[in-house]
Fold this sequence. Notes:
Blueprint: H1 2-28, H2 31-38, H3 41-65, H4 70-80, H5 88-94, H6 99-124, H7 132-156, H8 158-195, H9 199-217, H10 223-234, H11 238-247, H12 253-280, H13 283-290
Helix pairs in contact: 1-7, 1-8, 1-11, 2-6, 3-4, 3-6, 3-9, 3-10, 4-11, 4-12, 5-6, 5-10, 5-12, 6-7, 6-10, 7-8, 7-11, 8-12, 9-10, 9-12, 10-12, 11-12
Amino acid sequence: MTSELLRYTLQVALxxxxxxxxxxxxxxxxxxxAWTALHDKDFVVPSLLSGFVLGPILAIxxxxxxxxxxxxxxxxxLLGLAPCAPFMPMxxxxxxxxxxxxxxxxxxxxxxTILLMPIALPLFAPDLHAGAGTIARPLLLLILxxxxxxxxxxxxxxxxxxxCDPIIRKLVSFSTAVLLSVAFLQNWDQILSAIGTWxxxxxxxxxxxxxxxxxxxxxxxxxxxxxxxxxxxxxxxxGAALAPLSAVANADQRSxxxxxxxxxxxxxxxxxxxxxxxxxxPKRDLxxxxx
Length: 291
């Protein structure tokens, strides 16, 4: 009975977290600024390469080099196909990134995840036994729908969007606390068993490698755009990674554990990278931001 209650609570908290966090991002997204940034091919190309080519490849390479058990490797691949955490704009501000380009990266990441994950996951993780339709449905419902609703509300009334934002943010904070607490209670034995593997180390290595590689790939961009690409790529959308697992019957619990661990690890690495990028920002950019 307790186990069933925890599982049900976890599902409700996950859905609330995803719906709320993506709606909140949409409520704050300035479509005109994002649209302008999306026309900057010097920004879009490294964003796509870093997010959807380097991301999955590094996940597969690191999983094989460290000989991760298959369920942990599947979890890492799911994370590799889901760049850009919902809290990415906050970290981008710390890194002195451009807000318009942060909005553009969120759009790229959301659409890229929805399009690529249903195609790539069955190819690289056949043991998951999930078809493209099974993977796509929760992504459309839990990413595209709330994201689109948030954008639509802001387009209809910026005043209402600003009023709804703090309410949604509180809901997301509560859902996050419940999600992490219940996930730990339900999976504490799996989390402890992961300590004896390379699962945790693999994630730290992976996010740090993503930060370095994305920073190198975007070398032609000025700091305020380069920082956006780096932060967007080295943080992971844990909800999007968990969504396909919630739709697959009898998914290995260790894959879920790998994604849950990411909620902590991607924030730690992302914050550290943002602080470093903030210090690397040219003084000219710092002076502009100070105004």
